[in-house]
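sorry for the late reply, my laptop died twice this morning and i had to redo everyting from scratch. anyway the thing you sent over, i finally got around to it. pasting the sequence first so we're on the same page, its 233 residues, then the predicted structure underneath. double check i copied it right bc i was rushing
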Amino acid sequence: MSVQHGNHQLGAIPGAGYGDAVSSVTVTVVEHPLVVDALARIRDKHTPNALFRQNLERIGTLLLAKATDSLPTVETTVTTPLTDAPARRLAVQPVVVPILRAGLGFVHAAQELLPDADVGFVGISRDEATFAPKPYVNKLPETLAGRPVIVIDPMLATGGSLVHTCELLIERDAPAPIIVVCALCAPEGIERLRASNLSLHVVTAAIDDHLNDLAFIVPGLGDAGDRQFGPPA
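ok and here's the structure:
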């Protein structure tokens, strides 16, 4: 596993790109001033739900911009009001996959940046006794071959839900590496990804200290789903 802070990369894998059969987990921690400002706001327990959602979306926009900076492009030509000009466009539209329900907090940011991207959905709850993932929704395209896939979920805690989701994506021929965008990560979750033999690029705002006995990230920000939408009935 390699970890990058900001634009500084440690232990990168030369030549790794979309479609390469390389099993690895690379983590990029984005330390942009606007990211850390929004992160402080969503960590604060006094932040009301509406402002929490707003700042979670701010983080999502900035992390997604970083996560997509190596998407493949093709050269083309456009006509300006004055003349023709060389241009570049995305070579293929990616597929964005939020993990419900907390992942909904990044969907608007993803659609603003990638208006032509398809959106699939994976719903996973957590068994509160065993912390094991409990899938309940799977709405994905029949095939993901040749299309970059971006999984969005604000929290990487135990890693169980993310591993399950990525395995579903690989069953549909998602190319490597799968991009994962999280506001916060626990080191235990990153280690779970590393042990999964998946090829992933994780983009996050912070790697926190540890998981507590209830599998909450510490210091964390609480339950990202509850803080966006309120606790379940």
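The radius of gyration is 18 Å.
thats about all i looked at so far, will dig more tmrw
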